[in-house]
Design brief:
There is one protein chain. The protein is an alpha/beta fold. The protein has two domains: about 210 residues, GTP cyclohydrolase II (Rossmann fold); about 220 residues, Dihydrofolate Reductase, subunit A (3-Layer(aba) Sandwich), CATH 3.40.430. Helices cover about 25% and strands about 25% of the residues. The strands form four sheets. The protein has a nine-stranded mixed β-sheet with strand order 15-14-13-12-16-10-17-20-19, with helices on both faces. Strand 3 and strand 4 form a beta hairpin. It starts with a strand and ends with a strand.
Length: about 450
């Protein structure tokens, strides 16, 4: 394709120009970059306009064919978010999440595009736009008031870097359809676009709303994007995708209602299909809640590994501060973590940067108060994962919208109780919620609609 093309983006346009004989970037050098997500190959490029860019990749080697379409993230430079950890935007957290997803997949590329600060208007102009936003303008109107385009970014150099690495078919990590359209205009085949959303924060809620409402961004944390094999499978999660706010619970238990044996062994109770189902729910959630006993028994990581999607904020309900600092949710910084305690619990030493203590007051805490505290932090999609006592507490309080209960065809005889409801005197008194059933391998999941 020769000549310019205009790519629409929320009422503005991104102008791109590409000629197969024109070299926009030159590969200069490469090395290795060890990170908390593993070791990446880092390649340095210099653009014909003097701008320097890099690619970080795993499983991408020159001259080696790639399996299908590798994951690709085109990440626009954002000093405030990427380096300073600003919460005015979600850029830094998206950068970290994308590197994590590429590492989980074992094959993919992140192109870090210099010169894209403030959607292409530059760092100082972005700060001027911040000042207008402080006065009430949204990000779009602030750019326009300063005389800039809504989006001045150009992806020609990024596309050429992908071709230099041997990629012409990709799965794009982005919630911005304009990026997909720009790559298509530059002869890069985007076979799938996966949502890159991370949990919202109170500081960036309006910013994210503006991207959705005025810049066509979407929230593509769908199970279809997470690897569903059929429309029927994807339809299981449509309700969760379509709504911005919910509380659901998930649990797996034996036919006689136990999560684990009397010795606490619940390893391998449910099958692989149920594990993927759980990870898809995590990928759709802003926050995942577990009780202290679950952490003490299982030492879970609570991240998304078997499906696409960003890691939710991990929420540990620990009224008496029983969970040790060595627990993986505290010691491994894979996701933001809220340690919810009573008022008398002392903070764990020098808390890691991903760990925040939230003192809710004297326990026991009503389930609704926990949900309200999370929503005040911008965590509106909440998954209650365990254990049985925690799920049962939320269920009894009427705090759940839906309950996914996987039954495993095995009898344990006794053990750690699963989901329980208050006892009734007659069968007629038992709640009968609308229910949908679907198989998960040899297991069966019951989806109860509670409200």
């Amino acid at each position: 394709m020769d000549g310019p093309a205009d790519i629409p983006t929320g009422g503005a346009a991104i102008s791109v120009e590409y000629s197969p004989v024109q070299r926009l970037v030159e590969r200069v050098t490469e090395s290795v970059l060890p990170t908390r997500h593993g070791v990446f190959r880092i390649v340095g490029y210099r653009g014909s306009n003097g701008v320097e860019l890099v690619s970080l990749s795993q499983g991408i080697e020159d001259g080696r064919p790639h399996s299908g379409a590798p994951l690709v993230r085109l990440h626009s430079e954002c000093l405030t978010g990427d380096a300073f950890g600003s919460w005015r935007c979600d850029c830094g957290e998206q950068l970290d999440a994308a590197l994590g997803l590429i590492a989980q997949a074992g094959e993919g590329v992140l192109v870090y595009i210099r010169g894209h600060e403030g959607r292409g208007i530059g760092l100082v102009e972005k700060l001027r736009a911040y000042r207008l936003q402080d006065q009430g303008y949204d990000t779009v109107d602030a750019n326009l008031r300063l005389g800039h385009p809504v989006d001045a970014r150009d992806y020609s150099q990024a596309a050429e870097i992908l071709r230099d690495l041997g990629l012409d078919r990709v799965r794009l990590l982005s919630s911005n359809p304009a990026k997909q359209e720009a790559l298509a205009a530059l002869d890069v085949d985007v076979v799938e676009r996966l949502g890159a959303a991370v949990p919202a924060r109170p500081e960036n809620t309006r910013y994210l709303q503006t991207k959705r409402q005025r810049l066509r961004h979407d929230d593509l944390r769908t199970v279809a994007a997470a690897g569903s094999t059929s429309d029927e499978e994807a339809s299981r999660y449509e309700w969760l995708v379509d709504r911005d706010e919910w509380v659901v619970a998930q649990s797996a238990q034996s036919l006689d209602g136990f999560l684990a044996t009397r010795r606490g062994d619940g390893t391998g109770l449910s099958g692989e299909a149920d594990h993927r189902h759980l990870h898809r729910l995590r990928g759709l959630a802003d926050a995942v809640i577990v009780g202290a006993q679950t952490v003490l028994n299982d030492d879970p990581l609570l991240t998304v590994r078997l499906a696409s999607g960003s890691n939710p904020t991990r929420v540990v309900l620990d009224p008496r501060g029983r969970v040790p600092a060595t627990a993986r949710v505290f010691s491994e910084p894979d996701a933001p973590t809220l340690w919810v305690t009573g008022p008398d619990v002392v903070t764990i030493g020098e808390a890691a940067s991903h760990l925040t203590q939230l003192q809710l007051g004297a326990p026991p805490w009503p389930a609704g108060d926990v949900v309200d505290a999370l929503r005040a932090r911008g965590l509106r999609r909440v998954l209650v994962e365990g254990g049985g006592r925690t799920v049962s507490t939320f269920l009894a309080a009427g705090a759940l919208d839906r309950l996914f209960l996987t039954t495993v065809p095995v009898l344990l005889g006794d053990g750690v109780p699963g989901v329980r409801v208050p006892a009734v005197d007659t069968v007629a008194d038992a709640p009968r919620w609308p229910v949908r059933r679907f198989p998960l391998g040899d297991d069966t999941c019951l989806e109860f609609t509670l409200r």
